[in-house]
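Lab notebook, bench 4. Still working through the backlog of constructs that have no structural model yet. Next entry is a single chain of 98 residues. Request: give me the structure tokens for it.
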Amino acid sequence: MVGVKVTKSGPPGLYSFAVTVRHDDTGWEHYADAWEVVGPDGKVLGTRVLAHPHVREQPFTRRLTGVAVPRDAAKVRLRAHDKVHGLGGREVVVDLPR
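Model written out:
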């Protein structure tokens, strides 16, 4: 994970995330297949499934909107997942806009 942009997306507590991922995708057998937004308590608040490999598109950015975050949370953590290694790579902690 190389970048995250977070914005408010409507009613209080809802956010949108634009996440940029870099992964050495090699094809259908090994590619970044998801990323997650994780709350302060470790609960997964949202998952963006990546439906196909991005062999020729690196890095790439995908959005997830309407993620409900507890109102008392000031930060969330984002982490990526790939088909071979599971969760891994650089996790990113971001401050939520108020």
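Notes after review: The domain at 3-95 is CATH 2.60.40 (Immunoglobulin-like). The beta strands are 3-8, 14-21, 32-38, 44-49, 60-68, 75-82, 86-95. Flag for follow-up if needed.
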